[in-house]
């Protein structure tokens, strides 16, 4: 059983709502209240992991799968670097597996030479101990996923208020069929191409309209497009997913993406009326702690 006292420390997160790049944060976040019965087996795991404000003092490792797991010994990317700035600090989601944090720092440092941008605006990575989130993502649970804004970092340090209130840029037309040519640039294409070409990157998720633009602009070398996977949302940011670190047997990789560039019928299927205007589905019940890998209980209870 998880003792109530261990979950009494509130996390500086807003209660309710979504957690996308276009959603604003706050410079005065309200704490989550303590749980009346944190040992309830029916309690959603997101309520437990969402109240952890610091990483588990354990050997660093990703546990489980991207949408059903947790992370031990997470590291935080510093909120400021020469070539990156972390956004939405009130969410406390700048934590990840040390390999992901190192990757983001190295990639950001290379960015001026890749597309001329001063740096990256980093969105959600993971919670301090990973796990399901109270708002937003189904994945981002094992510290190997990171959202990168499709807005270049400005040539100055953003204020705390700007990091909470500034909106990312929507790159997709209102009809969802293609990118907005007034906003999309060759620099965006170069950024996603470079991320997908990185060793250790398993997938890069983008809006189907952005994938359509990348297919059109790819040129002769189309090998990198295999990793670029279309998915709804992701019109304000793109999503980098690393493969499981070598030697971490408790981390479950996805199957490799299908071969080919994914630019034919596979992509066209995303633009049918049924896909563009789907009927609302029934919400899935939230994961409980018992539905996560057993090690995640130890991660949750660790100092």
From TrEMBL:
S-S bridge residues: 70-296, 215-263, 244-251
Gene Ontology CC, one term: outer membrane-bounded periplasmic space
Keyword terms: Disulfide bond, Hydrolase, Metal-binding, Metalloprotease, Periplasm, Protease, Signal, Zinc
Residues in the signal sequence: 1-21
GO MF entry, a single one: serine-type endopeptidase activity
Record Pfam families: Peptidase_M74
One GO term (biological process): proteolysis
InterPro entries named in the record: Peptidase_M74, Zn_M74/Hedgehog-like
Protein name: Penicillin-insensitive murein endopeptidase
């Amino acid at each position: 059983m998880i003792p109530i006292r261990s979950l009494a420390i509130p996390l500086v997160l807003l209660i309710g709502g979504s957690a996308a790049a276009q959603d604003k944060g706050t410079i005065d976040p309200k704490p989550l209240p303590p749980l009346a019965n944190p040992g309830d087996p029916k309690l959603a795991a997101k309520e437990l992991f969402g109240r952890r404000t610091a990483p588990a003092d354990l050997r660093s490792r990703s546990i489980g799968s991207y949408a059903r797991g947790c992370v031990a010994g997470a590291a935080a990317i510093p909120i400021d670097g020469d070539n990156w700035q972390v956004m939405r600090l009130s969410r406390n989601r700048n934590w990840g597996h040390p390999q992901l944090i190192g990757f983001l720092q190295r990639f950001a440092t290379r960015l001026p030479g890749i597309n001329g941008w001063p740096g990256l605006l980093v969105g959600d990575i993971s919670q301090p101990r990973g796990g399901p989130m109270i708002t937003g993502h189904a994945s981002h649970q094992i510290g190997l996923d990171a959202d990168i804004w499709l807005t270049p970092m400005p040539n100055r340090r953003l204020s705390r208020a700007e990091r909470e209130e500034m909106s990312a840029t929507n790159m997709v037309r209102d009809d969802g069929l293609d990118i907005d040519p007034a906003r999309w640039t060759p620099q965006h294409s170069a950024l996603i191409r470079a991320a997908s070409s990185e060793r250790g990157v398993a997938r890069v998720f983008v809006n189907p309209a952005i994938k359509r633009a990348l297919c059109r602009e790819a040129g002769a070398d189309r090998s990198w497009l295999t990793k670029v996977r279309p998915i709804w949302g992701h019109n304000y940011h793109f999503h980098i997913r690393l493969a499981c670190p070598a030697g971490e047997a408790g981390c479950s990789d996805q199957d490799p993406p299908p071969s080919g560039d994914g630019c034919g019928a596979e992509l066209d299927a995303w633009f049918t009326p049924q896909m563009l205007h789907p009927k609302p589905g029934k919400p899935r019940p939230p994961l409980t702690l018992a539905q996560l890998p057993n090690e995640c209980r130890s991660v949750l209870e660790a100092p």
